[in-house]
Amino acid sequence: MKNKQNDMIRVYSDTEVNINRVSAELAKKGIPSLVKNEFQSAVMAGFGASPNAVDLYVNESDLDEASKLIEDLNQDN
């Protein structure tokens, strides 16, 4: 069986607030995503980290559509 997580590609890195907004917009379009929050993990472990250490991953098959949506969202701001 193929591991679906290995088919995921990082498409965006930013603050937690912005990543959550983009993730919500992707979900509205039916694009599943995975948020990897290194900042939160580091804080919980007692280490420091950059608050921009939050990454957003999508399935490789959704890469083009997700990239276009992210580009459009960034142009609006």
From TrEMBL:
A Pfam cross-reference name: DUF2007
Domain DUF2007: 8-73
Gene3D superfamilies in alphabetical order: UreE, C-terminal domain (3.30.70.790)
InterPro entries on file: DUF2007 (IPR018551), N-reg_PII-like_a/b (IPR011322)
The name this protein goes by in its record: DUF2007 domain-containing protein
